[in-house]
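#onboarding

Welcome to the new folks! Below is a worked example of what a typical request in this channel looks like: someone posts a single protein sequence, and someone else replies with the predicted structure as tokens. Don't worry about understanding the tokens yet, we'll cover that in week two.

Example request:
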Amino acid sequence: MNLSNVFLRYLILIAVALPNFWIFYFIFTPLTVYPVYFLLSFFYDSLLIENIILVNDVAIDLIKACIAGSAYYLLLILNLSIPKIKIQKRIKMILFAFGIFLAVNVLRIFLLGIMSLEKSSLFNFTHQLFWYLVSIVFVVGIWFTEVKIFKIKEIPFYSDIVFVYKKIFKK
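Example response:
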């Protein structure tokens, strides 16, 4: 590992964040909307118009918060702030994290959609619970799963800080 590797990883993180996570929404909006629409269409007569799924005169609008671009960004941060990982392994880790989160997010939206369509009295509570707590648990759970599966030994950010400090001040 060298300083340019550290610099490049953090430059990527800044570049991805600057345009308001547009890359995550560009990629993951259709990857989220179409599977949710497909699943709902098994149970209901559905119509898809852009990011809105119409079912029985009820509009399920999949806004940016539903797509969860910031969660994908957090997973990317965790994956890119780990040093000493070969590019092939890093790509596998990122694809694993994004794939798992995408599947869980589609399932979450699908279940909330059914609750809304069936006018469940627990919809608002469940929606808020997912928004404030469960989504965080998903991201943390995915990260811990990655740590175990990919045998990650380094600590995000800290390992890079120690490395940079030693390179600069301990010559």
